[in-house]
């Protein structure tokens, strides 16, 4: 058993048995915490009953935490567990609410005005608008020019999403 000071000057006991009893995520976190104190991989390995190579592999490991899936959340795809966005984000929902306020589902606004009305930054507006276009919820009817803002039109998928938002579904 080895004692290592992790959070204060009070040493914490680390043994191979205690380390093996931890979940893989906790093992990774413990190795990373100990590494922050400039302890060598060989020393960590000796304390936890692993080789230096195993310690290096644990340092590099980034476990994927799988939360309960819900509509509008992220689901891991089949290509390695990276999250893939299923629904739309909060910023995109704020922009859809602007479309909901228009009578015909058409707005003629520049990004700065959309940002002000939706209480977002212009960079976030661009990202959210791109997301809405990718999800086929809005369409650029006419690009903006020097003194004329772009004209955007709400599509059927966008109307369906607005209905979910209005109903207070899990998306809102």
What does this structure look like?
With 172 residues, the protein is an alpha+beta fold. The protein folds into two domains: 2-60; 90-166, Winged helix-like DNA-binding domain superfamily/Winged helix DNA-binding domain (Arc Repressor Mutant, subunit A), CATH 1.10.10. It has eight helices and seven strands, in the order ββααααββαβααββα. It has helices at residues 16-20, 24-35, 41-48, 52-60, 90-101, 111-118, 122-134, 156-166; strands at residues 2-4, 12-14, 74-76, 83-85, 106-108, 138-142, 151-154. The strands form three sheets. It has a three-stranded antiparallel β-sheet. A two-stranded antiparallel sheet has the order 1-2. A two-stranded antiparallel ribbon has the order 3-4. Strand 3 and strand 4 (83-85) form a beta hairpin. Helix 2 (24-35) crosses helix 4 (52-60), helix 5 (90-101) crosses helix 8 (156-166) and helix 6 (111-118) packs across helix 7 (122-134). The mean pLDDT is 78.
């Amino acid at each position: 058993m080895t004692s290592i000071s992790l959070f204060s000057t009070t040493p914490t006991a680390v043994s191979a048995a205690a380390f093996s009893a931890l979940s893989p995520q906790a093992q990774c976190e413990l190795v990373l915490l100990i590494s922050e104190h400039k302890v060598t991989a060989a020393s960590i390995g000796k304390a936890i009953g692993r080789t230096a190579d195993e310690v290096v592999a644990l340092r590099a490991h980034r476990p994927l935490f799988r939360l309960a899936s819900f509509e509008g959340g992220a689901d891991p795809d089949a290509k390695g567990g990276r999250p893939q966005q299923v629904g739309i984000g909060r910023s995109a929902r704020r922009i859809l609410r602007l479309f909901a306020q228009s009578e015909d589902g058409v707005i003629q606004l520049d990004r700065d005005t959309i940002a002000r009305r939706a209480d977002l930054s212009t960079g976030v507006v661009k990202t959210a608008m791109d997301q809405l276009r990718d999800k086929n919820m809005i369409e650029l009817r006419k690009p903006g020019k020097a003194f004329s803002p772009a004209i955007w039109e709400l599509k059927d998928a966008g109307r369906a999403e607005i209905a979910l938002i209005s109903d207070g579904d899990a998306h809102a």
